[in-house]
Amino acid sequence: MKGAPPALLILGVAGGALLLLAAAGGGSPATGARRVGGFVHGQIGRFFSWAELTASGAAARLGIDNTPTPEARRAMQALVATVLDPLRAHLGRPVRITSGFRAPPVNRAVSGSPTSQHMSGEAADIKADGMSAEALAAVVVGLGVPFDQVIWYAPERGGHVHVSYTTTRKNRGETLHAPAAGGYVGWRPRRGASASS
Ligand SMILES: [Zn+2]
Q1: pLDDT tens digits for 77-121?
Q2: How far is the CA of 69 from the centre of ligand 1 (A)?
Q3: How far is ligand 1, taken at its centre, from the CA of residue 126, in Å?
Q4: Distance from the CA of 162 to the center of ligand 1, in angstroms?
Q5: Are residues 95 and 9 in the same domain?
Q6: Is 127 inside any structural domain?
């Protein structure tokens, strides 16, 4: 067994039974977050869980710890409160997180941008069943909430919407499309696009 055992506080011995309290890591009590075995449990906001925003197939496959730092956790809370919860409430249907927080080794494993906002907890990739990525992106923009980037990806590149929000500088409100051919092009939602699904 390599590495340090989980930190335990021995509270006392009563009737031969050890009373142990796991020294859980610094989750915010306000959102019920707690860390157990490297994972963060509980809800981030109204609709989303830490598990959804930290799940990573690459991390699981490669055995990489994808636990967000306290700074990343605060960024994720802000992203959920400002964009994802209002979006979910507006849509009235599930918003699936296909990629949320990525620890730097996870981001490298999935060939993410070296400056990806996923590494700081500021970005999530989302899908909504029955909606095209373009229509979902148009709904996000139409919410009127601040965002840094909304990028909808062609089906050939995942068919998801990348949305980010930052608290460290002004949000750019940038809207882009990632076409099948590669790269990024400017994009604005068409009028009425958000009404269709
Ligand atoms: Zn993304």
Answers
A1: 999 999 999 999 999 999 999 999 999 999 999 999 999 999 999
A2: 18
A3: 8
A4: 4
A5: no
A6: yes
